[in-house]
Amino acid sequence: MASLDLATTPTTGALPTTPGPTRRPPRPARRNPLRLLRRWVSPVVLLGLWQALSSAGVIDERTIASPAQIFTRAVELVQDGTLGSATLTSLQRVGIGFAIGAAIGMTLAIVAGLSRIGEDAIDPPMQMLRTLPHFGLIPLFILWFGIGEQPKITLIAMGVTFPLYLNTFAGIRNIDRKTIEAARAMNLTWVQRVRHVIVPGALPQTLTGLRQSLGIAWLSLIVAETISASSGLGYMINNARDFLQTDVIVVGLAVYSLLGLATDGIVRYLEGRALAWRS
Question: For 9, which DSSP code?
């Protein structure tokens, strides 16, 4: 009898299978330009209403200037260099104060988060100090540091320290314990666990604290520049208040808000880049 030969694979005898189509990674969703335009509709309408009420005399110009007057004064302040000089001075104060406060907050949070002894030594006084209204410490800062730049920078640094400390500390302590145990089972060293487990796990909350700290830094700057300042946006606003120049006051406040939005946008961009691994 003739035997029949069946075509099978050499090892298992299973029929060969064809590989399925490879899945491409999902593309990031694109922003709808129409939606971006819609977000500008309400601000433009409010500005138009404001200008119309000012032109009709409903809003007294001595109470607040019209948008057209504010824009004209902003152009004048830019052309004579007043606005640029004041903005650079304020940016310098925020930059120095934020750098000092962020360094202190991050260092204390890392020490307290990675060590029980560090937590017992650092966390109780930090929890006590954070309940103090740091704006209420201005008289003490003036007595301790005088009326120069030191009390202003100290006020900003103190406002930055606590939100960054609290968020970073909570981010370190909220890391899943199973992840730490898995890293130990893989025989990772302490430095490798910090680099590959603790830092990525705490980074989202740390960046949230960074955004909060930047917002408080600008709020602290507004108060700090009212303390015997001779330059900066706050000094410009105080002078305008004495001469009832509401257009200059609004220009200064607008620059404050734009600087705050710009720094927050930078952190959000860095957050998107650093946390690209998240869904």
Answer: -
**143 touches 85 (CB < 8 A):** no
What pLDDT, on a 0 to 100 scale, did the predictor assign at position 162?
A: 93
Domains of the chain: 65-274 (1.10.3720.10)
Judge contact between 186 and 197, C-beta under 8 A. Answer: no
Distance CA 195, CA 180 (A): 12
List b or e across 3-34, with b for residues whose CB sees 16 or more CB atoms inside 10 angstroms.
eeeeeeeeeeeeeeeeeeeeeeeeeeeeeeee
On whether the CB atoms of residues 209 and 172 are closer than 8 A, the answer is no
- What ranges in the chain are assigned the alpha helix state H? 33-39, 41-55, 67-79, 82-114, 116-129, 138-145, 149-173, 177-185, 190-193, 199-224, 233-242, 246-274
Q: What is the pLDDT of residue 13?
A: 43
Which is more confidently placed, 228 or 146? 146
What is the mean pLDDT of the segment spanning 38-57?
85
How far from each other are the two terminal CA atoms of the chain, in whole angstroms?
A: 64
Angle between the N-to-C axes of helices 82-114 and 67-79, in degrees from 0 to 180, rounded to the nearest 10:
90
Q: Which residue has the tokens 């700057």?
A: 221
Interatomic CA distance for residues 198 and 98, integer angstroms: 24
* Backbone CA torsion sign across 68, 72, 78, 83: negative
Residue 53 parent element (H or E): helix 41-55
